[in-house]
Amino acid sequence: MPDRVKQMNETQFQQLKSEVKAYVNGPLQAVSDAIEKTGVCGKDVWRKLRSQGYLNLAAPEPLGGRGLSFSQYLQIIELFARSHGSIRVIVHVSNGIWRPFLSLVSAEQKERFLKPLIEGRLIATFTLTEPGSGSGADLKTTVRKVGANYLVNGEKWMISFGDIADYFLLFARLEGTSGYDGTVALMVPRGAPGLEIQMMPPAMGQTGTGHAHLYLKNARVPARNLLGVPGQGLTAALSGFLGPSRVSVAMTCVGLAERALELAVKRAKERVTFGKPLARRQIIQTYLAEMATDIEAARLLCIHAGELQDRQTLTAEKASMAKLYSVGMLKRVTDKALRIFGGIGYFKGSEIERIYRDSRMPWFEEGTAETQKVIIAKHVLERGD
Ligand SMILES: Cc1cc2nc3c(=O)[nH]c(=O)nc-3n(C[C@H](O)[C@H](O)[C@H](O)COP(=O)(O)OP(=O)(O)OC[C@H]3O[C@@H](n4cnc5c(N)ncnc54)[C@H](O)[C@@H]3O)c2cc1C
């Protein structure tokens, strides 16, 4: 366990936090409105966030990152979560996608993939989910080595940023293997022969993020794009990336719920019915008290998991607990916020309406609530009585 966690010095970090707060409450509001209006969140938004230095926050400095500790990064993602779902997911993915590479890349791949990814010269997207199998060791997409290439066959879908990604960090298996055996992580270039990319319909929330359905028919990928060795693919996906990523998603739930509470409080103070503001009704006060308490409980679980990650002792169980509790909390808080708003909150153009839709996404991200329960139950049962 490291005695001292590497992190940005406190003065610089507090400056960064104030800067991000002002950016979220200022310029990003107009960006958010434009995304909702046009239905598009393209590369331009990435460029803006990149030029501000917000997409390489958590990566180590020697690799081109800004060297925040994970706990510091969580405080920043909490702020971004208050903005639009698509903006938040860009910050979340960019600040985590490099993690599975760390344990897998060769020196040559570090220069060709990892550093350009962190520096923003490449966009890669996590490509695991399939229409014909469960997420994880059940994956069915196969690879076969032929000469200097892998031929990839299968389908992937719901892949975020499939509209703009330069590479798909794709998880598959060697033909004829099962379970974790023979799983591979492969960098599939957008232009790979045999890869067809079709865009999926717009999602319920996260307006503007392009989700792709990939069809791979003997798609040809250079063998030098294989990360690590066969058999390591899924371990990298599940342990290197998903643990901290689940905590990051959990903290985004906290940030978004805080914004919902803030809006609900404002509305409760302004809206007068039967001669009194809603905020003076005890039933509304109980909602507000429950919301604030629920948010605080989730935040503490996330902070604890973040500290464990910094000490390199984060377990799958603790990451899943933070995520499980936080998605449930966000659902309860946004539900109550919408009730406090009344019917007007249900209409397009109201921020709470967008938040309600955006808040359904973390339910699926990095594994559903059911998946988190499976992981937690496994640990509970292994510990015995
Ligand atoms: C907007 C959006 C963006 C996404 N972006 C990406 C992306 O960039 N990359 C990517 O790889 N994936 C992405 N996904 C996919 C996401 O990770 C999956 O939707 C999620 O993991 C659930 O898998 P599934 O949809 O296949 O559900 P299914 O596996 O079909 O599950 C359906 C239901 O059954 C439950 N269930 C399934 N198996 C079990 C089991 N063994 N035990 C108990 N319950 C079970 C699930 O919890 C769920 O409630 C995205 C999804 C969405 C909605």
Describe what this molecule looks like in 3D.
It is a single chain. It contains 12 helices and 10 strands. With 385 residues, it is of the alpha+beta class. The chain folds into 3 domains: 10-119, Acyl-CoA dehydrogenase/oxidase, N-terminal domain (Butyryl-Coa Dehydrogenase, subunit A, domain 1, Orthogonal Bundle), CATH 1.10.540; 124-231, Butyryl-CoA Dehydrogenase, subunit A, domain 2, CATH 2.40.110; 235-383, Butyryl-CoA Dehydrogenase, subunit A, domain 3 (Up-down Bundle). Strands 1, 2, 3, 4, 5, 6, 7 and 8 form an 8-stranded mixed sheet that branches. Helix 4 (70-80) crosses helix 8 (233-270), helix 8 runs parallel beside helix 10 (316-341) and helix 10 (316-341) packs across helix 12 (369-383). The longest helix has 38 residues, at 233-270. The chain is globular. The mean pLDDT is 94. Bound molecules: flavin-adenine dinucleotide (FAD). Flavin-adenine dinucleotide binds at residues 125-129, 134-135, 158-160, 203, 206, 211, 361, 364, 367-368, 370-371, 374. Flavin-adenine dinucleotide is lined by residues 125-129, 134-135, 158-160, 203, 206, 211, 361, 364, 367-368, 370-371, 374.
| Backbone CA Rg | 21 Å
Overall morphology: globular
Low-confidence stretches: none
Please report which band the strand proportion falls in: under 5%, 5-15%, 15-25%, 25-35%, 35-45% or over 45%. Answer: 15-25%
